[in-house]
Amino acid sequence: MSESQAAGGPQTEALIKASRRITPEDTEEVRHLTLEVLDPAFQFVEGQSIGVLVPGPHPFGNAVHLRRYSIANARPMPLDEGVVIELLVRRCFYLDEVSGERYPGIASNYLCDAQPGDKITITGPYASAFRMPLDNRANLLMIGTGTGIAPFRAFAQHIYERRGDWNGQVRLFYGGRTGLDLMYANDETSDLANYYDEKTFKAFRALGTRPLMRSSEALAQGLEAHAEETLRLMREPNTQVFISGLRKTAEAFNRVMAEQAGGEEAWETLKQSLIDDQRWSELFYD
Question: Which domains does the chain have, with CATH numbers?
Fold first, then answer.
């Protein structure tokens, strides 16, 4: 077995069909990538992720570099063509804490630099903590920041475009430091806006109100305005909770809910009951 196979399991080839920047040129770069997998055996469900293999050599002698990305679209309808996958990718850079030098993130820059027609190697799809309930009466409470909303976009596509019969309440809270952080939330780039008129769907965006405010802090502000309804939904036995994004997203959510529930002990009891009933799922990245 090669080192690349050991890194991520079975591999397949994907073709870059489109790469579109969804943030202005003078801000952090975030791109919406469309890939086509020609292998008919490749199938996925909402909430899963894929691995992207970046050929080396890389620092520390690695032959390949593997990074996982959440799939941002619903499973395709049966077609004779390949399987389409959409990703949200933020071009990342990292600071060396000792030297202070800035280094490009390997996978994010590889994907952001990729051009239509390029072929890349992917692995997966991988099982996810996020699983769409089969019962169309289930309430879905989705909380995310930044590119953490990618799986929620897939959920919304699936239940409103593919199924079209969802009766449970769907609430999406997403936060950012500025409006530019709200991928698919701005009018001209938003396809989540397609679902705002659905009688069961409500999305709440939260922006930072001061310079350098974290996206998680902005999310907390938005949640506070709807904390009562959010807590009420979580107390209903058919509600599923999904949290995605930076780890501070969970901290912000826990803080707001503890205050609304009347204290940390009451909140932790409710949260544990959701976990025990397998109605709580989380997916975080650093």
Answer: 11-126 (2.40.30.10), 139-284 (3.40.50.80)
